[in-house]
Amino acid sequence: MAKKNERPWGQFTNLRVLPPHCKVKEIVVNPGHRLSLQRHEWRAEWWYTHSGNGIAILEEDGITTEYALMPGSMNYIPAMAWHRIDNTLGNEPLVIIEIQSGEVCDEADIERKSDDYGRSE
């Protein structure tokens, strides 16, 4: 069984790692929480919302766009775009299946712009 990685906002589990350029993970964001506003230099991400409801925030070229996350929705996050998954208005866990693709699919490839848990750089 895959190891759950606990975070202040919830948890993630690596479901499949296909070296060197692909990773599939399950992200569970607890109600009332959100991930950091972050970007990745080396990878793009695709998000499939499995269950729950929330908001995807995407900042590109100085423009911020919000997208509804609901079961069955898909979102593409290009490399170097600031992004965040938000479940601050939800009352149930938000479950996202994330597919990462790029030169580096590693947790070290995170630059944080803003974080509710004091992890900003």
Summarize this entry quickly:
By secondary structure, the chain is mainly β. It is built from no helices and twelve strands. The protein has a six-stranded antiparallel beta sheet with strand order 1-2-3-11-6-9, with no helix packed on it. Strands 4-10-7-8 form a four-stranded antiparallel beta sheet, with no helix packed on it.
Description of the structure:
The chain is mostly beta strands. The protein is 0% helix and 60% strand. It is built from no helices and twelve strands. The protein has strands spanning 4-7, 10-18, 22-29, 33-34, 37-39, 43-51, 54-60, 63-69, 74-77, 82-87, 94-102, 111-114. The chain has a six-stranded antiparallel β-sheet, with no helix packed on it. A four-stranded antiparallel β-sheet has the order 4-10-7-8, with no helix packed on it. Strand 1 and strand 2 form a beta hairpin. The model has no long low-confidence stretch (mean pLDDT 94).
